[in-house]
Amino acid sequence: MTTRQHLTAAAASAFSLGAAFVVGQNWATPAANGAASRAYTLRMGDKVSVPAIGQVCSLSTEGGAADLFCSRPRNSHHQVTFFRDTILVWKEGRPDSPVWSGKP
Each residue of 54-91: pLDDT tens digit? Predict the structure, then answer.
């Protein structure tokens, strides 16, 4: 290959990468914003679906304390419960041994 062919190949590669970047930025799914765009007030028994992450959450009580219980409707591996002062994560069907717990 001659120097001219190398330069032509390099220019074509650079143009292709630039075009792919522009196309990806214009048609890609936008990243989630850090700020909530909507706020909802849930009442006991309400269910919320979050399609972007494939989760369904329900507001209920356990031992007299309100909790928000979230899991995938199908093929779930883990379940998450949000209490006022604790977050618990456990493997599906094993609520007595959480794999992670923390403070909100």
Answer: 899 999 998 888 999 998 888 888 889 888 899 999 89
**Phi/psi at 77 (nearest 5 deg)?**
-110, -35
Q: Considering the entire predicted model, what is its pTM?
A: 0.57
Per-residue pLDDT for 28 more than 60?
no
Query: By the 8 A CB rule, do 89 and 78 touch?
Result: yes
Q: Are 55 and 70 in contact (CB under 8 A)?
A: yes
- The conformation of residue 96, written as its DSSP 8-state character, comes to T
Residue 65 lies in a domain: yes
Q: Provide the domain limits for residue 8.
A: 1-30
Q: Can you point out the beta strands (E) in 14-99?
A: 47-50, 55-62, 65-71, 78-82, 87-91
How many domains does one find in the chain? 2
